[in-house]
Structures are given as structure tokens and as C-alpha cells.
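WARN  no MSA supplied for this record, continuing single-sequence
INFO  ligand: beta-D-fucofuranose
INFO  echoing inputs
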Amino acid sequence: CAKKDNQTTATGAGNSGSAEKKLITVGYAQVGAESDWRLANTQSFKDTFTEANGYKLIFDDAQQKQENQIKAIRNFIQQDVDYIVVAPVVETGWETVLQEAKDQRIPVVLSDRQMKVSDDSLYLAWVGGNFLKEGRDGVKWLEAYLESTGRANDQINIVDLQGTIGASAQVGRTKGIVEGIEAHSNWNLVAQQTGEFTQAKGQEVMESILKSVDKIDVVFAENDDMGRGAADAIKAAGKVPGKDIILITFDAGKDAFDRVINDGTFNCTVECNPLHGPRVAEIIKTLEAGGTVDKIQYVVEEMFDKDGIGGARKAADALPERKY
Ligand code: GYE
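INFO  complex generated
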């Protein structure tokens, strides 16, 4: 235990005292490669945590399985890394392994999805998107869109294609749309099922919903990839996505922008920023210098549509600044 006695878990202050400049070893327990968002997130870490920037990155892809992430974290502990970064696949079930990291005095930083732990001293900080706000933004846009198309008082049947159940990105976005449905007596939740945040599963689930539900007005796809799958399923059923069925997605990646601007198959996409590499590096830099960081750090995010209604920005205006 004496090994890291220049380090405290409260501040994480680390190598700052050593004469020669050592690389800081960072183990990143990544969720998987399920979506465009995830690929951009992985790239952001690989681009940031380079040797040239003073880091050695040990990257692990857990293939969307918590047990694999727990194994990866244990491996990082065994290798005595300087920091462990986790993008937790689900919110719960992390106490034991985080306690193991704490016992070895290895600071843990969370990024992207959140954890629900009984003792929040088990991690130093979290940085990511505000998923409940994202869900509520999608609702605000839908209200404005229905209003602008004269449908504010019509019966509106809504499908919620959910992300990985128990992931904080799913929990927040689902809560947002469910609140919206409860607040409008003419909005009806006609189907709610997970598409695991993947295009293939999103398509498969949407195909079966289209067979069992007669009238669908809106699909709330909890990421772009499932939105793409849903658009394909809607086309295959002889309907026009974006016209016959309103499509709202989350992430606002390049392809979603293209659809909103060009073929109209998505009506609105709510931003979720994946470029967390530099944000986590900033946290580590501060900790290395003996400083303290805000425990919870939300990234500011927008939403985009064709015409700029309901608080959305026009996608065409924002396009030149987009980085993913
Ligand atoms: O929206 C989805 C990805 O956790 C915010 O995970 C992330 C979500 C993102 O698979 O595309």
C-alpha cells in the first residue's frame, strides 16, 4: 500500500513529485462498439491518451457486457495503472470492483454513462451528457412540431425504442419521453422495447412493432443507430420515415445530420457529445497537479432539425462546426 503514498484518493495527486517524466497509465473500460457514437468516443480517447501527450492507454472493449467490464477493471488493478476510466454499461452493480480499486488507491474517473453507487467516494468524478434533459428536449421539439403542423390536439401514437436497459442513457431518455406522454392526454405510448442501441436490433424490433400496431405517428429512437434501423423497417412496411411517421433520434452524429438536412428521414436529432477524451484528460491533469475537480460535469448539448423549431437549431447552420 505504501507504493502510492504520494497519492490520495480524495485528490488523486500522483506523479507530480517525480524527477523524470513518466507516462501516466490509463485503463479505459469501454462499453463496446455498438454505435457510431461509441466509435467516435473510442477514437476521442485514442487520439487524446497518446504517448506524445504523456500517456499509455490500455483500452478494453467489453462488448456491452458488465461482467467483461468488471474483468477489465480487475485487470487494470492488477497492472497497477495510474487511473481507471469507466464508461459503465449499466448504472448498478459496481460497488465491489470499485472498492477493490480504492483499496489499491487507484483513482477512478467515470465518463459517458453514470453509476448509481451507495458510496460516491468510490469514484472521483464523472463527465457526460444530461440524458434526462435530452429526453425532455425531444419532447419539447415534438410539442412544437405538432403545434406547427396543426396536430396539437390529435391522438398521437408513440413508439419508444429504448437503449440498453439499465444504462443511464436509456434511463434518462426514457424518463423524458414517459413524462411527456403523461403530460399530454392525447399522446399514447403504443410500444416500448429495447433495441440495444444497435441499428440491427432497432430494425428488427421496429419491424415487429409495425406488424402489431396499426397506427404509429412518432418513433422516439434513443440513438441514431436505432433510428436508422427504424427508418429501414418503416420503408420496408411501405411508409415514408420522416413523413408518415415522425422520427426523433439521439446523438446527432454525421449521418443524422445528413438525414435531417437532405432526405428528411429523421425529423429531429438531439445532441449527445461523444468527445470525452480531452475532458477526462483535463480531469487527470488537474488531479496530477494536486487540484480538485467538480464531481459531476455535464456537457452542454443542443438539438437540431430542418427549420429550427421548439428550441432546435437548424441543422444546416450548425453543419460546418460538427466534429463527429
Ligand atoms: O447515445 C448511444 C451509445 O451512452 C450516451 O451509448 C451513450 C449512448 C449513445 O451506444 O449511441
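Residues 1-19 have pLDDT under 50 and may be disordered.
INFO  checksum written, moving to next record
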